[in-house]
Amino acid sequence: MIAAVLTIGGSDSCGGAGIQADLRVFDRFAIKGCSAITALTAQNPNEILRIEPSPAAQLEAEIRAVFSAYEIKAVKTGMLYDAERIKLVASLMQELHTDKPIIVDPVMLSSSGTRLLANEAVATLVGELLPLATLITPNIPEAEALQSGEGEVDACALARELKLPVLLKGGHLRSNTLLDVLCIDGEKVIFPHNRQLLSGDAMHGTGCRLASAIAASIALGQSLPQAVAEAVHWHQQDMVSR
Ligand code: PLP
Average pLDDT in the 129-141 region? Predict the structure, then answer.
């Protein structure tokens, strides 16, 4: 069977985020990419005009079709849309992808301000999918929504609470030096980088691309810390060239 990475997420009509972005990243890492679509979005980098969820039976059929023909080395999830689709994905992962890497990008809100995950589905994400995850890659607002307490988020406190490795992305910090913080087994690894003045198309989908690069590196045999380090580095170079 051919080795592949599967992305489960939303389709982005402008191609910059979601599964279109993910598949391009898998290509850049020279690994075959497969996709299963949770929702169709009509959007451009400035606004999301319409979202149509995929029928659950279609999402299930796409996931089953891919697993029956490819050796899925890693799964990346992005926009999951609602609790029904999260439950479906979690149960299919337990059936088809047992004990294999799952990178969860907990997409909640687009930069343009539209919700991509129903508010009430956050608890389902935490209760049903995160126990199966290898790594979660929240930005600061997503981490705030995931933590049970109030106040400033800390990657290791969140990792302890969720009982899984966390890559906390610092893109929402105000400083010129941004810190992405990885916490695995209580150990912190900090990846500092300069803020890049990106907007519009260049900015759109940056979170999707980073999580996909991690999934691709893991699928190619890297350990989790190596995969994160390589993906963060690749992503920084990729942003400079945009
Ligand atoms: N649309 C889809 C389908 C996505 O998966 C994402 C992010 O994961 C976005 C939009 C949001 O992209 P951004 O916030 O980078 O504009």
Answer: 97
CA of 150 to the centre of ligand 1 (A): 26
Tokens of 38: 């949770």
91-100: pLDDT as tens digits:
999 999 999 9
Instruction: Reply yes or no on whether the pLDDT at 221 is more than 90.
Output: yes
Which 3 state secondary structure label does DSSP give 15?
coil
Q: How many CA atoms lie within 13 A of 38 on its CB side?
A: 25
| pLDDT digits 0-9 by tens, 13-63 | 999 999 999 999 999 999 999 999 999 999 998 999 999 999 999 999 999
Structure tokens at 131: 């126990």
**SS3 state at 236:** helix
Q: Which two structure tokens, joined as six digits, stand for 57?
A: 């039976």
Report how far apart, in Å, the C-alpha atoms of 98 and of each of 40, 80, 94, 107, 206 are.
28, 20, 5, 23, 28
Atom of ligand 1 minimally distant from the CA of 45: 16
The answer to whether residues 104 and 129 touch, using CB atoms and an 8 Å cutoff, is: yes
Q: Closest ligand 1 atom, CA of 204?
A: 15
Place of tokens 């592949």: 4
pLDDT computed for residue 177 by the predictor: 83
Which residue has a Cα nearest atom 11 of ligand 1?
Answer: 110
Contact (CB, 8 A) for 167 and 228: yes
Q: Is 111 in the pocket of ligand 1 (CB under 6 A)?
A: yes
CB of 171 closer than 6 angstroms to any ligand 1 atom: no
By most ligand atoms within 8 Å of CB, the mutation choice from 112, 208, 238, 239 for ligand 1 is 208
